[in-house]
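Now for one specimen:
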Amino acid sequence: MSDFCYIYCITRENPDTACPKVSGHQGGEIVKIPYRQIAAFISKTSQSYFEPTFENLSRHEEVISFFMKEGSPLPMRFSTILSSEEKIKAMLETYYDQFMENLEKVEGKVELGVKVFCKLEIQEEKAAMPETSSPREYMLARYCQYQSRQRQTEGIMKETERLHDRLAALSCESSYTRPMKNNLFFNASYLVAKDQKEAFDREAEHLKKQYPAFKIVYSGPWPAYHFVTISKEDENEQLC
């Protein structure tokens, strides 16, 4: 029995917008729940939660991708599920102004992702460490290794800042983090106007050639997950 409603995205209401032919979770039909100038696209499901498996995540993205062809939807967080259509209408009413503001913000734009990986030259340093029985010489060698890693890390951070500045100049908004683990030094998202995407593509390819020591992973276009901000009235709610 389909008791729950899985929400994929919010769009501007357009009577001519057709529901995608792709199925939602559990093969559910995608249907529209309109409210004033916005609409939620959902499918019915018997589950109140979905595990973030590859199949489930792909299904979520596939439905949202349909709406990206014609516009700039607000993607809902994976496994956003409410108990009824009435609850969805209440959500649309409660957050209507914020949904409208965010729709205006992402209109005509897509999210593009850039990750920078770089491997420090640690293995070579270990091989170069002298074999010695002197604790002082051993500690000195280890300290030299530490200094070398610090210099490498600082150099990588400066270069990724330059890389970021060039990409940010082609975007409307951007954000990044520095995970600093598993050789990932830089993880960024850029909100880019669709008519600027080709220029952004070219710059990303140019940077790959300019920084051969970096592994630059470029992805997208994606829905604007990192640039949608909804101030929730209930902290337990999971929206965008």
Observations:
- The two ends are 27 Å apart (CA to CA).
